[in-house]
Amino acid sequence: MRNKFDMQLGLLNEQLIHMGELCELAINRATKALQKGSIEEAKHVIDADQEIDQMEKDIERLCLKLLLQQQPVARDLRQISAALKMITDMERIGDQASDIAEIIISEKKSEVPDLKKIGAMSEAVAKMVRDSVTSYVEKDLELCRKVMGADDDVDLMFEDTKKELIDSIAENKGDQGKEAIDLIMAAKYLERIGDHATNIAEWVEFSITGIHKDSQV
């Protein structure tokens, strides 16, 4: 009976890894679409979001099956309940990437030449997502805490990007102002993705230690 349960926990890990990969792909494609002004690439992000939504349902179903059909011990319960929380944040990461894609589609944007800081933010949050899921699968407490620390760096990157774009609006009071506002929104969505990756890492910490940040006195 335990062997079957462990096999299903292994399947849970595989599905979480796949969902995390889909989130990372959506982030990368959304940024690429923004940089190139590619509506086609943006539409791929929308499709990926739908696949992420389906993965959330599939993993939720597997978690409920594990809870109802097996008799998990406390450690297993933490692992399963953490997974249920994690997929909620991963689904929202898909939504945020989709929101960036919607900017390109709705505004019919052309190529934007200089998005180095937004590109750096995208790489940083994609790594946070990847590392947070890896830390869950490998039960790596140090790695999940590194993800939490990385969120401060992403917040600073967002503030720097926002300031630069606001200065650009002040200097160029024409059509570029609207574009700068859209880019601030895209950067904000990336910053929120970093927040969701941090939430995932906090649930990983709970799955390993039994202590969640919000429950500490």
Automatic annotation (TrEMBL):
Pfam families: PhoU
Top-level taxon of the source organism: Bacteria
UniProt keyword list: Cytoplasm, Phosphate transport, Transport
GO cellular component, one term: cytoplasm
SUPFAM superfamilies in the record: PhoU-like (SSF109755)
Gene Ontology BP, a term: negative regulation of phosphate metabolic process
Gene3D superfamilies linked to this entry: Phosphate transport system protein phou homolog 2, domain 2
NCBIfam families cross-referenced by the UniProt entry: phoU_full (TIGR02135)
Assigned protein family: Belongs to the PhoU family.
Identification of the protein by name: Phosphate-specific transport system accessory protein PhoU
